[in-house]
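re: ur question from earlier - yeah i can do the single chain one, its not a big deal. heres the input i used so u can compare w yours
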Amino acid sequence: MAIASLIPVLLGLMLAPLMLGVINRTKAAFAGRNGQPLLQQYFDLWRLLHKGVVYSRTTTWVFRAGPVVGLAATLSALLLTPLGGVPSMLHFDGDFVLFALLLGVVRFMLIVAALDTGSAFEGMGASREAAFSALVEPALFLALASLAKYAGSLSLTGLYVPLDLAAWAQAGPGFALALITLLGVFVVENARIPVDDPNTHLELTMIHEVMVLDNSGPDFAFVQYTAALKHWIFGALIAGIAIPVRTGNVLLDTIAMVAGIGVLAVAVGVVESIMARLRMHRVPQLIVGAAALAVVALIVVGR
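and the output i got, formated as tokens:
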């Protein structure tokens, strides 16, 4: 079991950039293009790691610490993330609180690093990120609370291991609502359409990308890899609910979860190909609606 607990971490470290590659290739297919290679994200990270770093004279150690601390916090969150029926490397009662806290540290460091540049442009993105983050955290907690109510555990591993077909037969509606909530959290946390467009550079629509415009070289590689890991982490949480495969066989369970994350990546690419992003004032309504569904999920599961 100790060896099995390494699987979620190793797969996350290796396959997180590939998830972004699947999303980009799906979008390219919908646009009738060949698109970039599936491994393009790996090439980009390698190239950035070998470039120099440029720092503005207005920045301080806060800007330099932002990418490093953000990546360290994301890696720590990965250690707490199970992969369906495969337990996480670290798990204990109440670890989902630490999990949410670590993700909050990632956002905080990106925000303060953006503010440290003294740029009004990056400050605008930081302001939007802070506002949306304050709304999305309750939705995440409520979704996890509905799972905790059913499992009777306060650990992410304890929440996800019991989610088999029998559990779906017993509390399926509640799980479905929690799943929809986590999908909403996924697009907000990862700045995907319809909340944000990661490929845009338009001032009026940028949120995440505008905060990292001053990053370069290895620092920007850390930011990009952090973003990829966050995609994987939330993908694992979503696949763990959507695919109730708990055979007890580590290999089969792992394959099912990786396939589920792959399907999620394709689904994200399809959504971004057929849907425009929401107007900025509509985004809080989306987040609050997701939180409301989580409240209903908590009520349904608790009955």
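The mean pLDDT is 92. not sure if urs matches, ping me
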